[in-house]
Amino acid sequence: MVNLFRTLSEVRSPGQWRFRLVALSMLLLAWLPVQAASYTFPGNLPEGCSGNSSGTYTCGALSLADHDTITIGAPTPTTITVNGDLATGANSQINKGGDAANLTLVVIGKTDLGAGTWLNANLISGRVVTTGANSHVVGNITTIAGVVNIGDHSTVVGQIKTDSAAINIGDHSTVTGAITTTIAGVVTIGAHSDVAGNISTASGAINVGDNSTVTGSITSTIAGAITLGGNVKVTGSVATTYQGSDVGAGAITIGPNSEVNGGVTTNTGAITVESGAKIRGDVTTKDGAITVGAGAKIGRSVCTGNSGAITIGASATVGGNIETAHAGAITVGTKATVAGSVTVTGAGAKTIVDGAKIGTTMIGAMCRSDPGDDSTTPNPTPCSGPNCACRGTDCPNACSGPDCTSITPCSGAHCTNPCTGPDCTCTGPSCTCTGSGCTIPLTIKAREWRQIFMR
After folding, report:
1. How far is the CA of 82 from the CAs of 58, 59, 60, 106, 111, in angstroms?
2. Weakest mean pLDDT among 115-129, 142-156, 336-350
3. pTM of the predicted model, to two decimals?
4. 195 half-sphere exposure, CB direction, 13 A CA radius
5. What is the Cα–Cα distance from 360 to 442, expressed in whole angstroms?
């Protein structure tokens, strides 16, 4: 700049002055910040937009530059139809501060919202919807066959739904509504993200990244695997089928140290519960193997209906029964604990590794025939008193809750430790097994079960 002014001082002819002044003006203009445009419906409409007094507007392809704003005024509700693509620059705003219910955006083409964009509207798009990082959408997002991509560190306060297209949620993002593909489409939730709603698809895989939380259930009703990463928390159930149905196929993988508050169920497909994971409900499949990793905790029963082997890892805990109803081997690893019985009903070997602790009384009914039942209501009849043992994770300290099971005590005036079987005799104040026909049931108290399950 100093050189430019020195050059101007050396100019002698008027033509040279004019040329140098024009150059200086252009240089100064280049340094000035670009002024963002502010549009109002009705009022100052963007180029190519038109409307009427009823709140209905039509635009061609609508493009907003960085920091541009659109404000929605009366009358409302307002509908803006874009007969082309909608594109916004970074940090642009559409109806920010307004009620999303008062604006419907219908985009015939694709929608591309720049990083940091704020949109308060219900968005219906005919093609792909993409939001940049740190974007905010208040309202529902709906497409028919357009993929929905939500950028990292973004927020959607509303539902996301496609009929036949994928939905991708970036890392560190939040969706406070259901995520649904009604016909087909893969759903992917990034790491460290939160979804406050159910995630469901008819045919398509569902993947949830590490350290994410789903406040709801995860369901693939016809076909599609479900995979949870490590340290994922799900407050509902996880299923590749639906209640009362004989259809549904897809493997389920629960990552290490993840938690599912309901059950884990598939009609056809393997179930893998990795090490340290916690499932508070049943783990069931009609056809498919079940593998429970080392140190994992299952609050209720582990069952296969028609076929499928069951493997329980070392130091794992099962609060109910383990059963293969028709065909399938069962293996219980060392130092594992099973509160109920272990039963191979049809074909298949039963292997109990040394150090495992197994109950002798079946808790409640046999394996459920309905793989879609994610109810967490325990089966056993409540009991109370000295002959009552806690067989699950839902027992008060006095053992009078729904997971308490009655045990037939041994005979004798001084017998206080109940046991069952023809070879049971009383020796002093406790029961003693004197032959192969005697078993001392596992009598873990409710508080101890809670401590085991919550570790």
Report:
1. 6, 5, 6, 6, 10
2. 336-350
3. 0.76
4. 34
5. 7
